Amino acid sequence: TPQPVDDLWEYYASGDTTIESDTFKKVFRRNLVASNDPPPFEAAGTYELYGLIRDDILNRQVFAIMYIDNQFCPENEEILLYDFSLETEDTADFCLIPGHVDFIIESITQGMYLNFETTIFSGMDYNYYEGMGSEFGLFEPMFIPVKSGGGKSNYQTYLYYYCRTTPCNLVLSTQELSANNQMLSIFPNPTKKDINVVLPNSVKSGEVIIMNPLGQIIKRKA
């Protein structure tokens, strides 16, 4: 919680594991020294395994298994973490929504968040973002947490406090493809409509082939 900071942590993804033929990414978490300064931060402990994440790219859903109690999601069983296949007026039903209140998707738009072009799902005054998760963090409950006691002011916890530059090593899978200036650039990513492919200046000729997750060619252009 920023301004003033009294609790700070970070996630780190490293390695894969297979459970019942599904491949998950391992996600670790460690506490950081509370600081009002911007990143980088000082570690206040070692990483411990927090949970696992699995991207179902075909169905545009993200599943997780949590090994540490977060008060709202069950431990040691697979849960639906985010669903990016929903349409306007659908109900989002994630355990990260406290109390499982009806989160009606009021709008779905393309926009920028944390310097990434992404699809924004909005409802109940909250947003979640394809390829990123919620604006409150990866595993954090989707509500406005506040401090209590001591006459402190109320402050919100937001992902942007740590992820201020691009890239910021997002854990979910759909971030921009732009390794360096010599690589091609594809945007927006993800998208439901148009897509732009910009080749580096050094490429004078060639062919662009776009395939779906099944490897089927859906567009070919010389």
C-alpha Rg (nearest Å): 19 Å
Q: What is the string of helix and strand elements?
A: EEEEEEEEEEEEEEE
Oligomer status: single chain
Characterize the main sheet.
Answer: 5 strands, antiparallel
- How helical, in percent, are the residues? under 10%
How many helical stretches?
0
Order of strands across the main sheet: 1-2-3-4-5
Stretches where pLDDT falls below 50 for ≥5 residues? 173-181
Look at the helices and sheets and give the structural class. Answer: mainly beta
The amount of beta strand, in percent, is: 35-45%
Mean pLDDT across every amino acid position: 76
Concise synopsis of the structure shown:
This protein is mainly β and 222 residues long. It is built from no helices and 15 strands. Strands 1-2-3-4-5 form a five-stranded antiparallel sheet, with no helix packed on it.
